[in-house]
Amino acid sequence: MPDFFTLYLVVLLLGLSHAVLWAAIVYRYPDLGGARFWLCGAIVPIFGGAILATQGNDGLLVQTVLGNAFTIAGFYLCLMGVRRFHGDPTRWRSCSALLALSVVAMAATFRTWYGFNPLYTLLQALPLLLTAGYLLNHRHRDLGAIIAAIGLLLAALAHLTVAGLFTARLAGSEIEIPVARLAAADLLVLMFSATLWNFGFIVLSVDRLRSELARLAAEDDLTGLPNRRSFLTGLEAALADGGAPVSLLLFDLDRFKAINDSYGHAAGDAALSHVARTFEGCAAFGRRTTFARLGGDEFVILLPGATADEAIRTAERIGALLRARPLTWQGDALPLTLSIGIACKAQSHALEASGLIELADKALYHSKRKGKDTYTVLHALPSREPPPRGELDAAMRLPGLGEIRPRGA
């Protein structure tokens, strides 16, 4: 079994490797929650290992208490990092109070239980158990959290085993305890466990970054709504069920350019966000509904399983809802209205996504050409391609192809 100077030196080098790793992550991803705490949680025990290494194999009060205090502080920093990572308060005050009590307890019992002091390992096990418990009970528990919790529990179990044996010795048991070997084994388990829980934290971070990239790829930056990519995925899935009707509402804001020109682009952005907030989660939408922003002031509502009558009722509801909630901008109430194009695919009609979008676009074009605050309905017919824009007026007169309804009709 290596001597304690060698073991503490290994702890120092291992801590340095973890610190370099977390420093690189913090440098590359400065906004990653918890990473700075985990960096500090790797650095602080380095000082503890360096201090403990200076005492050699003979315990010295100041070095022993201070070295263990740095180690315990590093464990509490890991706990605070996990809480910050999941968006919870770090609880600086409670962690600092527990650390201060640990220092006092270690100093007060150093001479009394010298050589068999169970408090040192118990006080180190406490933050490890708190962190593992938080990870295993958290609503976002995943693979990284489980890996980290296993490492934390292994270290805590080794500490508790040592503390239990020391407590039995202090209680008068005649069990022979090879203190040096036991402490060295405990330290080796701690080094392995520290690598394991840091690996778990890295897995957590990678999963978070991947989720963020996936969210950015599927979400509109301004409104937080699904973007064109997400909408197309939902539309293709809805159309894959050829036996069900599908309706599509394509709409944009009337006089949106005038808002930008008169009040500035910040007002235009506020108008788009206002539309998103007004309609997101609207009771008029079903659970399978997709409400997305395609770009500019163009939005879309996908209604899988909805008939033309249901799509029309939805259009009337959102039009009335937006008229009832004007945008307030710098003290002015800006009324907002919509031009809506409705495309409907009847049951059992085969149609590609591009065809339904083109049909909705033609309906929207007609609504804007005929007037504002209006919706137009076009039905996809299996025996006929959607008419070109130049023939739209004539096509609208074909029975069953479409209808135009201005507000109030």
What does this structure look like?
The protein contains 13 helices and 8 strands. The chain is an alpha+beta fold and about 400 residues long. Helix 1 packs parallel to helix 7 and helix 5 (about 120-135) runs antiparallel to helix 6. Strand 2 (about 290-295) and strand 3 (about 300-305) form a beta hairpin. The strands form 2 sheets. The chain has a 6-stranded mixed β-sheet with strand order 2-3-1-6-7-8, with helices on both faces. About 60% of the residues lie in helices and about 10% in strands. The longest helix has about 40 residues, at about 180-220. The termini are far apart. This is diguanylate cyclase.
Biggest sheet strand order reads 2-3-1-6-7-8
Number of strands: 8
Strand content: 5-15%
**Shape annotation:** elongated
What's the layout of helices and strands?
Layout: H1 4-28, H2 35-53, H3 61-85, H4 92-108, H5 118-137, H6 143-170, H7 179-218, H8 228-240, E1 246-253, H9 256-263, H10 265-279, E2 290-295, E3 298-304, H11 308-324, E4 327-329, E5 332-334, E6 338-345, H12 353-370, E7 374-380, H13 392-396, E8 402-406
